[in-house]
Amino acid sequence: MTKSKAEVLLAGVILARSTSYLFTKIGLKTLDTFNLMGVRFLVGFLLLFLLFHKRLFHLKKKTILGGMALGFSFFMVMTAELTGLKTTPTATVSFLENTAVVFVPLFEAALRRRLPGRWTVFGAATALAGVALLTLRESLSIGAGEWFCIAAAMLYAGSIILTDRLSRQDDPLTLGILEVGFVSLFALMASFITETPRLPAGGVEWGVILVLAVVCTGFGFTLQPVAQRYTGVERAGLFCALNPASAAVLGAVFLHERLGWRGLLGCGLVLASVALSRLGVPKQELEEESAA
Predict the structure, then answer these.
(1) Would you tell me how many other CB atoms lie within 10 Å of the CB of residue 122?
(2) Which of 189, 254, 268, 273 is 20 to 30 Å from the Cα of 59, by its Cα?
C-alpha cells in the first residue's frame, strides 16, 4: 500500500468514527459507560472474528501482547471520552478530544528528542484553529467533563503513537482485531466491577450498538493500524481534525444545521492544514509515491 492510499484509508477511518459522538450520546441515556462500551466492542469483535477468524489461529505471543497494549490504550481513551460525553456537549467533546492534533507532534518530538518540523507545527496550528471555528459557539468553560475530554485527547495522542510503533512490527489487521477484542474485555470487566451490566433492550439501544459496532468499531478502529503502518505518526495525528469537520458537514446535510461562515472557514482551514503538513514531505518521497 502506498502512503497516499494509506492516508485515504486513514481519512475514511476518521470520518467513520466521527459519527460515534451522536450515537454514543444516545446510548448513554439508558446504558452505563462500561456496559455500552463492552457490548459495542464485543459485537464488533464477533463480527470481525466471523470475517477474519483464520488470522486469529496460531497467534504469536508478541502479537497478542501488542493487541492487548493497543486495547488497553484505547480503552482508556474511550473511558475518558464517554465520561466527558455524559456532561459535555458533543461539539465541545469533539473539539477538546481532537486537540490531539497538537499533542501528537509534541509527544513525538519529546520521544525523539527533536523539534517537530515547521510545516508540521503550522499544519497543527491551522487544524486547531479550524476545529475551534467548527465546534466552539460560546465561551468554553472548563468543568469536570471538559477535563475528561482533555485527558482523552492526550491519551488519544499516545494511542496514535503506540499504534504507529506496533503496526510497523506486526500484522496491522490482526493487531486491530485483537485491539477491539481487548477493549471489549477490559470494558466488560470494568462493568461487572462498577456497574450492573445488561444486554441492550429495544430497537433504539440495539440500533445504536450495531451502528457503533459496525461503522465506528469494525471499520474505524480495526483499520487504523493498517493505515498508520504506511504513513507518518505526525500526519496521522493531523487527520484527527477531519473528525469535527465531518461531524459539522453531516449535521448540515442530515440535520439541517447551519454551518455559516465560521463552519465553512473551519472546514477550509482543516483541509488547508493537511496540505500545509504535506509541504514538509521531502520531494523524493513524493516522487516515489507518485510512481508507486
Answers:
(1) 16
(2) 189
